[in-house]
Automatic annotation (TrEMBL):
Keywords associated with the record: DNA-binding, Transcription, Transcription regulation
InterPro entries referenced in this protein's UniProt entry, alphabetically: HTH_HxlR (IPR002577), WH-like_DNA-bd_sf (IPR036388), WH_DNA-bd_sf (IPR036390)
Pfam family membership, one: HxlR
Record protein name field: Transcriptional regulator
Gene3D superfamilies: Winged helix-like DNA-binding domain superfamily/Winged helix DNA-binding domain
Domain HTH hxlR-type: 16-96
Molecular functions per Gene Ontology: DNA binding
Length: 106
């Protein structure tokens, strides 16, 4: 992997590591626009200030935008979410393995 590719990955991960960033995108994965209030409820536990900050960052990154009906993911955001589509299956396997590991420990 080139240093340019590493830098791009690091930049994307830094954006997604921000508190609630991935959850904001995930809440929009079905393609339906959400108002600020609905998005806040969908994410759960996020303060209005934090949501405003994440929206600003994700909009600047070109991953979401505000349309006539509310916030939606952009084509780039859709592409990222498609690439993350295997996450639920992986998470289920991972948590099952973690549970088994805890049961084995004395």
């Amino acid at each position: 992997m080139s240093s340019k590719e590493n830098a791009a990955i690091s930049q994307l991960l830094a954006l997604l590591e921000a508190r609630y960033a991935i959850r904001v995108l995930w809440a929009l994965r079905d393609g339906h626009a959400q108002t600020f209030r609905l998005l806040q409820d969908s994410v759960g536990g996020i303060t209005p200030n934090t949501l405003n900050t994440r929206i600003k960052e994700l909009r600047e990154a070109g991953l979401m935008t505000h349309g006539t009906d509310g916030y939606v993911v952009t084509p780039s955001g859709v592409d990222l979410l498609k690439r993350l589509a295997d996450l639920p299956a992986f998470a289920a396997k991972w948590t099952a393995a973690q549970s088994k590991k805890k049961q084995v420990l004395p």
